[in-house]
Amino acid sequence: MHIRLVSPADADALLAIYNPEVIETVVTFDLVPGETSDMLAWIESHLGAHPAIVAVADNPVEAPEGTPLSANGDAILGYASIREFRDRPAYATTVENSVYVARSARGQGIARHLMDHLIIMATDAGFHSMIARIVGDNETSIKLHEACGFELVGIEREVGRKHGRWLNVVEMQLLLGS
Ligand SMILES: CC(C)(COP(=O)(O)OP(=O)(O)OC[C@H]1O[C@@H](n2cnc3c(N)ncnc32)[C@H](O)[C@@H]1OP(=O)(O)O)[C@@H](O)C(=O)NCCC(=O)NCCS
User: Fold this and answer.
1) Fewer beta carbons within 10 Å, N or C terminal of the chain?
2) Per the structure, how many domains does the chain have?
3) Which atom of ligand 1 is nearest to the CA of 146?
């Protein structure tokens, strides 16, 4: 497996990873699955200072069954990104992260690999703080972020509603090197 920057050719593979989470789970607060055009716009917004990265199987033939393929034939195991945390200028040194792994490839350390890479990239780019906002019952993601050094900031209670439930958001933070 190797990690590279996202490309527009990855749009449908990323949608194949993301949309099932929109439809079936509460890990994302989006309510309506995205179209290719939405994902292309998302990728475009992550080609600059706030990048997205993808984990690619070294040999697509050996990727787990069901792993989505990009338009150039890469098997996309997962992706991670940073975005602006808040738009007021004094927040510019803080980013918020996101990470998704294909259901076919979970439990093999892909998310950890993506997160470690993302943290190094964000640190090298001069960002000072990374925030993760995680739905309260997403124990897997909370454990992942703890393993990456994030610490609990606090819990926003019942700030979301999806699938007929009130949802808490757990905020976690990692201070970066610079
Ligand atoms: C959360 C997610 C990204 C984890 O991806 P993954 O590749 O399976 O995770 P990894 O194999 O890299 O595991 C990394 C760490 O996460 C934790 N973890 C992973 N799977 C777990 C599970 N089923 N239960 C508890 N902890 C788990 C562990 O701390 C693990 O480290 P360890 O293996 O050393 O114990 C993946 O489940 C996913 O895409 N979920 C849906 C999207 C989502 O929730 N994204 C996060 C939104 S905030």
Assistant:
1) C
2) 1
3) 29
pLDDT above 80 for 72: yes
CATH of the domain at 54: 3.40.630.30
Instruction: Indicate the pLDDT class of residue 2, thresholds 50, 70 and 90.
Output: very high
Structural domain including 22 reads 2-175
* Ligand 1 pocket check for 55: Cβ under 6 Å: no
* Shortest-distance Cα residue to atom 18 of ligand 1: 140
Q: Is the CB of 138 under 6 A from ligand 1?
A: yes
Q: How confident is the model over 14-59, as pLDDT tens digits? A: 999 999 999 999 999 999 999 999 999 999 999 999 999 999 999 9
Beta-carbon contacts of residue 38 (< 8 Å; ≥ 6 apart): none
pTM of the predicted model over 0.85? yes
**Ligand 1 centre and the CA of 55: distance in Å?**
14
What are 25's two structure tokens?
């789970």
